[in-house]
Fold:
Amino acid sequence: MQKIVNPATGMLITELPDSDEAAVDDAVYRAHIAWSDWLRVSPGDRARLLRRFAALVEEHKEELAGLETLNAGHPISSARWEAGNVADVLGYYAAAPERQVGKQIPVPGGVNMTFHESLGVVGVIVPWNFPMVIMTWGVAPALAAGNTVVVKPAEQTPLTALRLAGLALEAGIPEHVFQVIPGDGRTGALLAEHPAVRKIVFTGSVEVGKQVARTAAERVKRVTLELGGNNANIVFEDADIRQAAASAPYAVFDNAGQDCCARSRILVQEGAYEEFRERFTEALLGVKVGDPTRDDTEMGPLISAAHRERVRGYLEREADVVGECPTGEGFWMPPMAYFDVGQEDPLWTDEVFGPVATVTPFYDEDEAIALANATPYGLSGSIWTGSVGRALRMAREVEAGNLSVNSNSSVRYWTPFGGVKESGIGRELGPDALDSFSDVKNVFISSE
Structure:
């Protein structure tokens, strides 16, 4: 049984049974049978059902946000944005079924056409840090392209996934087209291994992602992998230091640092280092950590006691700056920063996945690029500068799938999201994500 716990209090919410091999096989079998029914739904009707699904999510936004706050510890203001993002992503891909068109290619001796064909059953394995948002990034384009979906939510945070599956049925999406099977890592492995699953969308650790990739290779099935990051926030002397320093804590401590896009390695040009340090310290100490149900809370708890101990394992010396957080029940940890951390320190090399920032000086563009790229990851990052030319040079040199200039945001559902190096394979969101959920069939008709 899975014990579902409120991370802000440590109290048990509910218990759910794990999905064993028989349950996974049954879900995939039902999804495979439902695939033929979903294919017979016209593109216009598929679009209408997805729009209805999006509308129901919007209507239940407060309920979904409350569940995410209860189950994942997200501040309610953040959880409301996340529920809205779910509705937005569903609405965005609702336009796709009627616009996914093939081509007529001129060839001698006949007519040549291409068609986009759905893959079949898609497995979506979801992490615990942003459960309903990341789930929807896989589910929405998969459904829009005509696939059926089986979701394995993280064992810690299944509640919003289960509720969204219920809303999908309420919207009129046929039974078994979108299913949720709670379980632990073994359940996810069974889903990835299943021969009838044609693609796996996985977000999680590099280690597990590599195993998913090996399993997929053995079955010759497609994968989209988002495997984390250790992202740089690069601040040049000619930037607006006040703005860069004020925003930097929220680029790290959103969701208590449990964010693949967290810009936890802050690199500051030497001429601005002392000013940035002073302003950043002031901003960090102002981060409001506490009860995630309060509208003014900016950072909640870590997901579990075990994860808190993992993060604490990185903290061999006292932090230079430490904020405040609640004591007592719940899995709390304050925001903290370390200055002048060496490149061999695990705080620098690893994805800590907690409310911990490092701040390091650099001399010039070349050193900033070298420091930013000194990691096996390449997911996200920011560049703060007043020079358009420098922004373009840096954007081309920093190894990351998503970069922002004078901003710390990474995700826009209109644009592609994904990483390079060990941060993953493939892209989610944006118009191009749809193509990864279909095959192109080529048909030649002879005129002779």
Residues 21-40 form the longest helix (20 residues).
